[in-house]
Amino acid sequence: MSRHKKELLITNGSEIAIIGGGPAGSLFAKFAIEYARKYGIDVNVTIYTSKLFSEAGPKGCKGCVGVINERLNRKLKQHGIVLPKELIMQIIDGYYFISKGGNLYVEKKTKLDDIITVFRGNGPFCSPLNGGFDGFLLEHAKNSGAIVVQSSVRDVIFPKNKEDKITVKYDQGCHKVDLLIGAFGVRSPIIKKFKEIGYQPPETAMACLMEIDCGEKHIEEFIQNTIHIYSFGTPGIDYGIMIPKKRFLTIGIVGKNVKPRNLRDFLSSPLITKILPENPKICCQCCTQIPVTNAKNPFADRLLIIGDAGYSRYYKNGLESAFNSVQIAVKAVFESGISKEAFERDYYPLCKKMFITENIYGRMLFRLNNIIASHEVLSIAHMDLAKKYERKGHQHLDEIQWNMFTGHESYKNIFWEFFEPRLQFELAIETIKEVLERLSKKCRLT
């Protein structure tokens, strides 16, 4: 990357505005200020946010399951972002996979760092917490030197000439900026303004979530430090998830058009009711949109859209996606420039490799997972082989499941690991065995 003389550049006195005070916005502010100091450039960074992360319930919540994988946890620490103990709800020891074919527990084996669960906002309505992950990051950005304005952005005026600044209109006035960063969510009303200049937001799926107060004793006895993943191949539901957070349990389902009634049906299934307390106390519930494709045209002269509304990983690791895309973005801004051409040259190619190409494999993997989960014979064959591997001390199928749902490995690598010839041969044998066993039972009954 190189700063061309004729490019639009960040220089002394440049004004950078960020719409959105979530992780993408806060991290961009922090890293931009650090980069500016590195280059000896004096910049002003302002974050505009309407979220009140200090409030419990939906007002302070992003609508996210709140799992920070070990890789992201390590990256945050390497950049001086260490979560205080009171924000860490649970340290996860493993994942429990439940399907038509049976159950499989996969223990965390890597020692890179802890997998932790957090509340993005101030927790559910009945929570005694005082602060969450997003508020912590925003405070970190403030301490780095960012200005935080508690206000919605009402309008954005794009200049006809790229030499002129962008105007941001908010509740208290106007702000002319050299660079505008869109770190808003996929449901933000401001999106319609960016569509006027060719931006196309990502397509979305739905996640319906619920927070239940089970009590710490119940969590310790029935859930422990384990995330539960449910894959039954139910039409419209890609998977269900159950995440412990001290005395609370976050339960959710994800799918193209899932609705609250689907979550209620999920909660009433015997596999769920047997591990929940009687008459569980529901503290909070919501449905939110999550991106399943990447945005088109998320940059222009003096404009860059990041986070969920830009490029992110399919279904997994929204927080790590934000971190990674922010690092690429900040480097491009300070080392290349802030014109559309600069972003096309030094931002887009890296994002294409990390997100766009990667997500092709992600979509195929989750579709494949749904096909297997919806057919009992295939599901049993996979579970039987996984357990055989486990007894022999091999973790091939375990690792595929683990990496797919934790985001620990790239989707591309997982895809080709799954289609390794020997593994497919052994899966075919297990499937044939299961079919023959069923035919044999049927013959004995007739």
UniProtKB/TrEMBL annotation:
Signal sequence coordinates: none
SUPFAM superfamilies given for it?
FAD/NAD(P)-binding domain
Q: Which InterPro entries match?
A: FAD/NAD-bd_sf (IPR036188), Geranylgeranyl_reductase (IPR050407)
Q: Which superkingdom heads the taxonomic lineage of this protein's source?
A: Archaea
Protein name, per record = Flavin-dependent dehydrogenase
Q: Which organism is it from?
A: Candidatus Methanoperedens nitratireducens
User: Taxonomy-wise, where does this protein's organism fall, top ranks first?
Assistant: Archaea, Methanobacteriati, Methanobacteriota, Stenosarchaea group, Methanomicrobia
